[in-house]
Amino acid sequence: MLGYRVTRLLITLALMSFASTAIAAGNPSAGKFKAISCQVCHGKDGRSTNPLYPRLAGQHAAYIEKQMHDFKAKRRIDPVMNEMAPSMSDRDIADIAAYFQSIK
Ligand code: HEC
Question: From ligand 1's centre to the CA of 37, what distance in Å?
């Protein structure tokens, strides 16, 4: 059956182009507000001083976005992040990632 595979491929391509649009559209100002809850663990502005919590300040947005989508899909396992990520939309993730990247 050609149809199923072609349809899957088209859906995958559509999702990929949607994802890259989201990356381009990340808004750091909106992200700053949305990232308030992250500071409890990842430190003020993502400048973590606790080795248990990775520093997010200055991290590449594309990397943060990938990790968040991996936590969401449980491709990456962490009890805390697997709880946090599913409630976040692609837009939230893109904005938060753009915000942390903007921190020097
Ligand atoms: C209750 C504590 C806690 C909160 C709140 C929290 N995180 Fe995390 N986060 C962690 C821990 C612990 C890890 C490390 C997981 C591991 O070791 O694999 C982590 C890892 C990450 C990573 C992967 C970093 C890397 O270098 O690979 C990202 C990205 C991330 N968190 C983003 C966020 C965002 C965005 C928020 C807010 C929406 C948030 N976290 C809120 C505890 C937290």
Answer: 11
pLDDT digits (tens, 9 = 90+) for 27-66: 999 999 999 999 999 999 999 999 999 999 999 999 999 9
**Location of structure tokens 């992200």:** 31
In angstroms, the CA 82 to CA 85 distance is 6
Look at residue 3 in the predicted model and tell me its pLDDT.
75
Residue 37, ligand 1, Cβ within 6 A: yes
Q: How many CA atoms are closer than 13 Å to the CA of 87, on its beta-carbon side? A: 6
> Which of 90, 41, 36 has its CA nearest to residue 68?
90
Which residue CA neighbors atom 5 of ligand 1 most closely?
A: 38
Could you tell me the distance, in angstroms and rounded to a whole number, from the CA of residue 31 to the centre of ligand 1? 15
Alpha-carbon gap, residue 50 to 77, rounded angstroms:
20
Is the pLDDT confidence value at 10 over 70?
A: no
